[in-house]
Amino acid sequence: MLKGKHIVVGITGGIAAYKIPFLIRSFRKAGADVHVVMTEAAGKFVTPLTLSTLSGRDVVQGIFPAAEHAGTWHIKLGEWSDVMVIAPATANVVAKLAHGYADDAVTTLALAMRCPVVVAPAMDVDMWNHAATQSNIDALQEMGYVVLPPEEGDLASGLVGKGRLPEMEAIERAVEDVLQNRRQDLRGVRMLVTAGPTYEPLDPVRFLGNRSSGKMGFAIARTASERGAEVTLISGHVHLRTPKGVTRIDTESAQQMFDETKKHYLRQHAVIMTAAVADFAPISVSKKKIKKESESDPTFSLQLRKTVDILHFLGSKKGRRTLVGFALETDNGIASAKKKLREKRLDMIVLNNPLEEGAGFGTDTNIVTLITKQGKVERLKRMSKHAVADQILNRLAGKLKKK
């Protein structure tokens, strides 16, 4: 699996850096071509000469290296690499990666990478458990970094807990898994994905909305981009970071989402509508905050109108495009989804029930049933939303390649 692969190893300033020469030697023995990039702090634990000897290449240390690495070295290495491994990744470097800093060789190169990046954090237990670190780890995962959780055991501080760098064999397996799963079967495919909720204003303060987190749509956008697609993501109001390589357009109301979808759908090979678009909106929107007129009357009447049906529009203008919709149903799920599939002229519909544990809004997992226009019904077991995204794209990839 590693033979002939181009691997960049990024080393940062943690005590576990002394282990990385063994990882480099293992990569080389497996036939990989290895390039080492390190921070200045990493040089306190392992010397560039050791790393250069084992990798067979000069080591990049600092953002202004000399000789052959001068100029746009980070762009050249980003194009050369099949995978980057950052190990050990200190709390400081994890924070930099999460917020886009590029003030050392490792973080500068990570931002320029076109390939998957595997991050192996290692730090003391209290640093690992800190809320800021955990938030940064979540951010990395949302952006598409592959994060290997640290192991538990004796730490350099004398404490015992989670924070040890995974064993070199575990890191090597993770790299092999990433390379094995790195498919570019959607290269050349243009895909539009909608995600998140829509908010329909009631007054300057209030709105009608739903509990969609956008995680499913963002997972599809991220996975499609990783597999080579050119992805446009039209999102409602969510608290998620834009996946790497994805063009994001933010919207609020159903009408705004429709306008942006209509603007961009013509050039797409596929459209995947995961957004939870509101079915109804207030007929009139108050320019001032609506107040309680009478404490004695506990009722309030609100007149609603139907919103634009984006999926119906796309189905009527479908042409040769592949069109996928989502159905969120709490009862009569299969029958309702099949009806929606027919009426909207979909190629596939993805059904899920928010009342099932591990499915629906806000969760990191989902339980879905895939229904095709040929009538095939396939229920998938509970899995992460990124795994669900892969399963959906697996069933579309062959058809999309023929377009």
The helicity comes to 25-40%
Q: Considering the protein shown, what is the CATH homologous superfamily of the largest domain? A: CoaB-like
Number of strands: 22
How would you describe the oligomerization state of the chains in this entry? single chain
Q: What is the terminal-to-terminal distance? A: 31 Å
Mean pLDDT: 92
Point out poorly predicted stretches: none
- Assign the structural class, choosing from mainly alpha, mainly beta, alpha/beta, alpha+beta, or little secondary structure: alpha/beta
Gyration radius (Cα, Å) is: 24 Å
CATH fold name of the largest domain, please?
Answer: Rossmann fold
Order of strands across the widest beta sheet? 13-12-9-14-17-18-20-21
**Strand percentage:** 15-25%
Given this structure, which CATH class of the largest domain is correct?
Alpha Beta
Total domain count: 2
* Total helical segments: 13
What's the CATH architecture name of the largest domain?
A: 3-Layer(aba) Sandwich
Net shape: globular
The major sheet is characterized as: 8 strands, mixed
Describe what is shown at a glance.
With 403 residues, this protein is an alpha/beta fold. It has helices spanning 20-29, 48-55, 73-80, 91-99, 105-112, 125-129, 131-143, 168-181, 215-226, 254-264, 310-316, 333-343, 385-401, and strands at residues 6-11, 33-38, 60-61, 83-89, 117-121, 146-147, 151-154, 160-164, 190-195, 200-201, 207-208, 230-235, 247-250, 270-273, 280-282, 304-306, 322-328, 348-352, 365-366, 368-372, 377-379, 383-384. It contains 13 helices and 22 strands.
